[in-house]
Specification:
Elements (H helix, E strand, L loop, with lengths): L1 H38 L10 H31 L1
Length: 81
């Protein structure tokens, strides 16, 4: 009798495991889809477009150039002082 009960519990656990594994897989797939949709938006929630990406890269480049110009300006002022 105890063996029969243990086999029944084992079958139930196996069934639950398969059902939960399937549910986990579905949730992971939904999570992947959410991550993909998140990549299509910027941090501020606005939609991502290639034009915005290009402008962001240009802003970064111009900021670096400005920093380099500021450093050069400081060096020139040191020489003249």
């Amino acid at each position: 009798m105890a063996v029969l009960e243990n086999e029944h519990k084992s079958d139930n656990l196996r069934f639950d495991h398969e059902k939960l594994a399937s549910k986990l897989h579905e949730l992971q797939m939904e999570d992947d889809e959410d991550l993909e949709s998140h990549k299509k938006t910027r941090e501020d929630g606005n939609p991502f477009t290639p034009e915005i990406d290009e402008l962001d890269r240009r802003i970064i480049k111009l900021n670096k150039e400005k920093e380099q110009s500021d450093e050069l300006n400081k060096k020139v002022h040191l020489v003249f002082d």
